[in-house]
Write a structure and sequence with these properties.
The complex is a heterodimer of chains A (about 270) and B (about 400). Chain A is about 75% helix and about 0% strand. By secondary structure, chain A is mainly α. Chain A has a domain at about 60-225: MetI-like (MetI-like fold, Orthogonal Bundle), CATH 1.10.3720.10. The longest helix of chain A has about 35 residues, at about 50-85. The model of chain A has no long low-confidence stretch (mean pLDDT about 90). Chain B has helices at about 65-70, 115-120, 130-140, 155-170, 185-205, 215-220, 240-245, 250-255, 355-360, 370-375, 400-405; strands spanning about 25-35, 35-45, 50-55, 80-85, 85, 100, 175-180, 210, 225-230, 230-235, 260-265, 270, 275-280, 290-295, 300-305, 315-325, 330-335, 365-370, 385-390, 395. Chain B has a six-stranded mixed beta sheet with strand order 6-7-8-3-9-10, sandwiched between helices. In chain B, a hairpin with a 2-residue loop joins strand 12 and strand 13 (about 275-280). The longest helix of chain B is centred in the middle third of the chain and has 18 residues, at about 185-205. Residues about 1-20, about 340-360 and about 400-405 of chain B have low confidence and may be disordered. Classes of the chains: A mainly alpha (about 270), B alpha+beta (about 400). The interface of A and B includes residues 171, 173, 178 and 192 of A.
Chain lengths: ~270, ~400
Amino acid sequence: MRHVRGFDVARPLSIGMLVLMMLPLVFLPLLSIFIFGTSNGLDKFLSALTAPEAIFALKLSIATSFWATVFNVIFGLFAAYVLSRYNFWGRNALIVTISLPTAIPTAVAGFALLLLWGPYGTLGRFLAPQGVQIMFTAGAIILANIFVTFPLAFGVIKPVFDTMSRSLEEASATIGATRWQTFWHVTLPSLRGAIVSGALLTFARAVGEFGSTILVSGNLAGRTQTAPLYIFAKFNEGQIEAANAIAIVLALFSFLIFSVLFFARDWLDVD
Amino acid sequence: MRAKEKLIEDFGVKQPRGGVVPSAASVVGVSKRFGKTSILENISFDVAEGEALVLLGASGSGKTTILRIIAGLEQPYTGKVILHGKDVTELPARERGVGVIFQSYALFPKMTVEKNIGYGLRIRKRKRKEIKQTVNELLSLVQLEEHRKKYPSQLSGGQQQRVAIARTLAYNPEVLLFDEPFGALDTQTRTHLRREIRALLRKVNVPAIFITHDQEEALELGDRVAVINRGHIEQIGTPFEIYNQPATEYVATFLGAANLLDGTVRNGLIEVGSGKLQAKLDPNRFKDGDSVRVVFRPEDVTLSKTDFARPGHVKIATARVAEITFVGAYERLRLLFDRPEDSSSEDDAYYLTTDVPERAKTASIIATRPKPEASATKLQIGDRVVIGLNSFTVLPTSQQKQDVKEK
């Protein structure tokens, strides 16, 4: 290839190729959501969005994802603490197990939960006679969300724990702090960034969860139908505008979360 | 009873605690093992109120482990740690009230300077007003008033260290423990900070234990120095004692340059080759025929061009100047003892041999002379000089020690 002084041909070429590759794979599909969603006018879009079932689905998604996030951040924090502070037999096995849900198909995760908690499941069959039914409720959706987002917060928090200097905690102890005071005043502030990004990742992933939710929720409109299930149901019924309206909301939502993650990096890592 | 949490103005007016004043901190018979490896063997020492003790040793000598045991960050295998008369061996770190200044300073990165300093009082649930007052006093003590709102990452190494010290002084510590306090700093800052810390310690009158591998630092910082080697104390004493009267060869060689000559005890004199040294020998320690090692520092060597050593100095031999190096404040000379080949018969009395094989052929010693002396008596390579010793130490050879152990 011929070189002009100070001009690297590979640069514009490779950037152009990257954008070209992403066009049919990511950009155009996202764009079509917005084009179709608003093609019948803004009124149609707004009325599709404000349909009671649509609003319910969005609220349910946000609520179930919120609780799954709360649980997984606390759990991830605890697991990261235990697994980076103590060395014990089976430690690596535990780390692998926590990370496993990333690799398990979400439909399998939902199915596994059904086999455990369903009316005829391993545990469920003892609960059913007591009138306790976990599956096909909002609780089941939270359980499924917890399962599939299990390793996300842990994965972000653990490396920060690993690189944290032990002498900070030792200093705090010699100054007279209890373990809890040390955790609260010294350890936790250093984890702030990891906790926020872990929470955002978990929440984003949970809001979009489909495969496991459709199995455990029963997909009952207005009762256990989350936003992604609503899109699927409306599409099957041929109500493209209804599906499209929610799709736009979810797409914007994930765009927002990842913008925060990307642009607030400096703030999250601030020392 | 010792009020453990007095305010800063009380520093320097320690009340004697009923009759005999116990030492501020004692380590009694401490040993430590990791698995089957012995890290520390029977370590014992006391630190008096307001005293600075330096634990000096090479890396891996176990000195850091001693510090961590005093702080409660590690448990001894046997032995006790006593702080102001109270046995704290079983107490966790947070109940001991010791101040540790970590090598990395371990300042809390998300807290400002004043938050760092006030931390010990905040977790003790002190009143806001009291915390503010103490923090202000400490900030002025360590001269960091204008940096109070800064974060540790915005401070220089020396400033961070001062924050670390102030942070421990806030809760009036039983003893201050410094872990390689100047390891992370450049030479110039080091020297400056050493003096600063000495002055600060004198002001607050808190006993301190320093850990270092730097002999110069140990001599300058310590009221006393304990030389640690392979988990045991080789010698403990004032800087003057350990430098000038080393108890073991390790101490002699670890604290700066030392010349070693092998000799034998004969009729109360020490025979070094064909030379004879007059020495006051402890009859309980040395018997006729014992092999000994004569240890002396380069600056204890005096050189004269006449046939006699200077008055008051012990003459050991004649030698030839083999090398002269100019080292700034002084001159360093390498001296070769006369060899039979190049010595005439009348010089035979000064001929020295050493029992160390590797030194037998090139028996040489190092001498240093301060500038005035060097310019008063100019010496050149090849000059013959009489070597006198200002002072020296006689040690049993390590060979003998091993024999004793084997018996």
